[in-house]
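Predict structure. Input: DUF2799 domain-containing protein, 204 residues.
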Amino acid sequence: MRYLPALGMAAVLMSLASCNTMSKEECRVADWAVVGDTDGAAGYDPQSRFADHVRSCSKSGSVPDQTRWYEGYQAGIRRFCTPLNGASTGEAGRTYHNVCPAETAADFMRGYSLGKRVHDLRSRINSLNSSVSSSEYEIDRLYDEMKKAADKDRRGIRDRIDDLERDRRRARRKADDLGYELSEAERDLAFFRQNPMAQLSPGY
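Output follows.
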């Protein structure tokens, strides 16, 4: 991580950050070391986060104290960049902004990778289950449609139902397969939380 250069202040004023991070009143009374500490502990990217604060506070005429904020950020990032927090961050599906110092990044990433695997598998299973539910709903609708359809149209409806049935079976099988992977990933994650340093051993 690098300290924001002085000339960068002009650039962050032009930032296209999409949302306000602080209210006008918060900007006026902010202890920027505390704000930086909070941002670091949350794992925010320092440049974009500080740019967001500058943008938000420009509306109140306040100028964030970059030095104080960065000092706080450095303290907060140390609490963020732990193996167990990496696991929690990954499991929650939050984006990692490559903010951890070199001496803690590897440990953090080990936890993050295990947690992210669990999150991704859960998301894929949920997506497949949603697809199954959508197929079942459409199958029921087509059966109702077929009851009212003319004889010449029933074959086409039947073919669409058959296609949906095949899709539903494939999705269910895939969800079941991923369920086994998820169980393994959850066991790995649980073991890591009990033994975070053991995960660093070669070939684990």
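The chain has two domains: 8-80, 102-200.
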